[in-house]
Amino acid sequence: MIRKFFLERASWILFFLFVESFFLFIAYLDAAVPFDSILYMVFLSSILFLLFLAFRYRKETEFYRNLEEREGDLDYASVPEGESPFEKIVSEKMQSLLDDYRRKLAKNRLSLEQEKDELLSWIHEMKTPLSAMHLMIDRVADETLRDQLTYEWLRIHLLLDKQLHQKRIATMENDVFIEQVALEPVIFQEIKALRSWCISKGIGFDVSLEAEDVLTDGKWLSFILRQILTNAVKYSESADILIKSEKKGEHVRLEITDFGRGIDPRDLPRIFDKGFTSAKDHQNSGATGMGLYLAKKAADFLHIRIDVKSKPGEGTTFILTFPKKNEFVRLAGM
Prior knowledge:
9 helices, 14% strand, cell membrane, His_kinase_dom, transferase
């Protein structure tokens, strides 16, 4: 701040030094002017000028120091009150801008809420024709055609489900209920939803649950498992997917292992990034790069740690480590 102050007042300081030097120069040229007296006056005026600078530094920088330390929010109270005319101009202008930003923010927030409500309404409305379509597909006599139609139906269903949770995850704290959740019905419900797809690809499931219950939100756990299982089925062919749970100290671990193509080591650190798709998926227009990103966001909120181990050509293991009871103090009241 001192350096900025001297840079701001550099013209004043240079002007003062020029005047002092000019007086000394005149006294040096004119013998009638006592040089020692002028030198003494220059010395005294320099002392006074330094004291004046010190006083003005404290006076002038207080407002800007408070402004620099101000948090980047829209709170009026954090805007320092100016004392000098120029400081008052800055303070009043900032308050005017904050008013404008707050109005625009409220307007944009309302617009986003309306858009979100409209989209959620549309998704829910789509579920009715999808359910009817599923019943019609079940009545198709041609088994090959029925499997193809069921697969396409499932893709639409999963995309709508992903979009629904993507909109809900921003306000997830309002949609969480922590309780003891039985793993078996949740897992088998998700397997059942993928049954036709798994049959067409020759994929089975080997489920072994030593630990049967976890403390979490059942609905969001289903969503997390749905994303992991969908990827496991998508990238596997004619192989079983292993699902097992076990107790590790006070934590429950759930492992989901597939024997598909695996994940490239270069891609592994980025699989939870928003919109990330591997190089092998760039030609796949159906890959959105949002499933694992949303699953990780939901898991982080529920204090579920997700670890991934993978070898290209051998398969991938997702490990979900559920929190202890005392880690849910913040979520328990929701």
